[in-house]
Amino acid sequence: MKSITVVLICIFIITIFKLTLATLSASDRSTGKQSKLAAKSGPTDKTLEERGLISATPKIKDIIREHNAYTITTVGLKNTNGSVLGYVTPWNSRGYDIAKIFAKKFTHISPVWLQIKMNDDHESVRIEGTHDIDYQWMKSVRAVNPDIKIVPRVMFDSWSPTDLSALMQEPRMPGIIGRTLVDTATKYEFDGFVLEMWNAFAVQQRDQVVQLIAKVYAHFKKAKLLLILVVPPPIHHGSRAGLVTRGDVERLAPYVHGFSVMTYDYSTIQRPGPNSPIDWIRECVKTLAPKPTSPIRPKLFMGMNMYGMDYTPNGGGPIVGSQYAEIVEKYKPKLVWDETSVEHYLEYKSGPGRNRIFYPSLLSIQRRIQLFNSLGVSISIWDLGQGLDYFYDLF
Hints:
Layout: H1 2-37, E1 41-44, H2 60-66, E2 68-71, E3 84-88, H3 94-101, E4 108-118, E5 125-128, H4 135-144, E6 149-150, E7 153-156, H5 161-169, H6 173-188, E8 192-196, H7 198-201, H8 206-223, E9 226-231, H9 246-252, E10 258-261, H10 278-288, E11 300-305, E12 308-312, E13 315-319, H11 321-331, E14 335-338, E15 343-349, E16 354-358, H12 362-375, E17 378-382
Parallel strand pairs: 1-2, 3-4, 3-17, 4-6, 4-7, 7-8, 8-9, 9-10, 10-11, 11-17
Antiparallel strand pairs: 4-5, 12-13, 12-16, 14-15, 15-16
Helix pairs in contact: 3-4, 6-8
C-alpha cells in the first residue's frame, strides 16, 4: 500500500508540476510573442491619422509598435507642393529601399557616390567612386517613378591650395570639368548632378566660383542635364552670417536648377539644442528670397534632417532611426514637445549623467512640410537611410 501511495503522490506532483510549467511557459511565450509582434513592419492599410500617431504627446508604445509600418494606400501619393530631393548614402543601405518604395514621393534622388579630383598634371580631372554606382537599383527606382531624376552628388574632394590655384587660373579648367561630368552622366545615364563645392571654394573667391559654375552649366545645358548646388545656410546660430548670401544666390540662379540648402546642424555638441528650429528655417528662406513671389524660392531645396543628436554629459554625437528606436524601447522615456523649435526631445539615463536626444518626429516633420508648402520652397532630405519608415507617409 505504501508503495502505491508513494506512486500516486509522485504522479500527482508531476501532474501539478507539468500544469504549472505549461502555464508559466505559455505566459512567458505569450509575453515574448506580444513584444515581438507589437513591432509592425512593412505596409499597413491604416493612415497615420487613423492610427493616431501625429501628436505633440506621442505614446512611446506607439513609436515602438508603428515606426517601421507605412501606409500602403498613400505610398504613391505626393503630399508636398514643391520638389523633393532625397539623398541616399552607401553607408545607410535602408535608403536604397526607401527610394524604391516611396519613389513617387520624390522628384529627385541623389546617391552619394562620386568625387571629382584634380590630377597631378593640374590640367585634367578624374571622377572617383564609380564602383558604388548601382545601375540595377537606378532601373528599379525609375520603374516605380519614370519621371524621377537621378542626380548623384559630386563632391570636390581633397583639393589642395595648388589644385585650387590651378582651377582658378587655368581658363580651360571649367570646360574640362563640364565635359568630364557630361561624359560621366552620359555613360551612366544620370539626369544631372548635385555639386558640393561652394564651401571649399567660395570663401575668398566668390566671383570666380560663380563664373566657374556658369561655365560648367553651359555644358550641362547643351546636354540637358540638371545642376543643383549645395550651399550652407545663410545665417547660423545667433544670427551670424553664413557663407552664402542673397546676392550669391541671385547671381547663381540663372545657372542652377536648385540650391540644396543645409538647414540642419543648428546646434552642436559644444552648444546642445534642437537640430533645426523652425523659425531659423523660415529666416533662412526669407534671407535668400525675401519676396513670396520670387522665382528663386522653388529652387530652394531646404534641408530636412532624418537623423538626430544624442547629447551626453561628455559630448555626444549623431543618432539614426534604428539607434533611436532601440533607446526608446529600452528606456521608455517621455517625449517633450518644444513649441519654440517645433521639435521633440527626450531624456534618459545611461551612465553617470543624463542624455538628451533631439530627433525628428511625425509632428515636427509635418509642421515643416506645412511651412515649406506655404513658403513655396522645395525640400532636400538628408538622408533616406537615417529616418523611421513611417516618416515618409508625410511627404
